[in-house]
Fold this sequence. Notes:
The protein is an alpha+beta fold. It contains four helices and twelve strands; from the N terminus they run H-E-E-E-E-E-E-E-H-E-E-H-E-E-H-E.
Amino acid sequence: xxxxxxxxxxxxxxxxxxxxxxxxxxxxxxxxxxxxxxxxxxxxxxxxxxxxxxxxxxxxxxxxxxxxxxxxxxxxxxxxxxxxxxxxxxxxxxxxxxxxxxxxxxxxxxxxxxxxxxxxxxxxxxxxxxxxxxxxxxxxxxxxxxxxxxxxxxxxxxxxxxxxxxxxxxxxxxxxxxxxxxxxxxxxxxxxxxxxxxxxxxxxxxxxxxxxxxxxxxxxxxxxxxxxxxxxxxxxxxxxxxxxxxxxx
Length: 249
């Protein structure tokens, strides 16, 4: 089916690989070139839905503590009959005729306005699943939602995501501090400086930091003043720097 071609993880599989990391003992995003410790004090508000960290295909994701003011652009895809009736990541049964969607970082229950940039058609969906974990795709829609924005036959479409209000019972919040996105680690300092220079030329803040314990020069983009912003930046860099991950200063 054109809509879910390339989708790497089934809904049932996601539930099997959902792993909650300890506050100080796992990386913010797995799959990087070297391990990194999560910032001290990372915690999930009691009762917050869909904000627990999870790991898929070697990458650890820290869902946002707030959906307030979130905006994102990328590629939307859809998933249908092969997943219909199976359990989503938040425990609901997937209904391909419903108005829900999968997103990697937004809290469960978040309502998102999805606008197809090719034709201007929009639809509002509710996040109840995790994914898609493919390339630069940012959201997986139900079949019905895909029909409403005119992308069913094509399977994918460039979209703009804008959250609508807050999730009931979920406090607006973020983890403050200085966060960086690590995009590389090199034994040769000149290679690290070359990459950092390339990033700066592209308009990004970048630094190199020597990690004596592992003998590597790390290249990190930032700083970002909150974990939410750092995670968004990390997602946007996935295509160019696969395996990047967030670190705290």
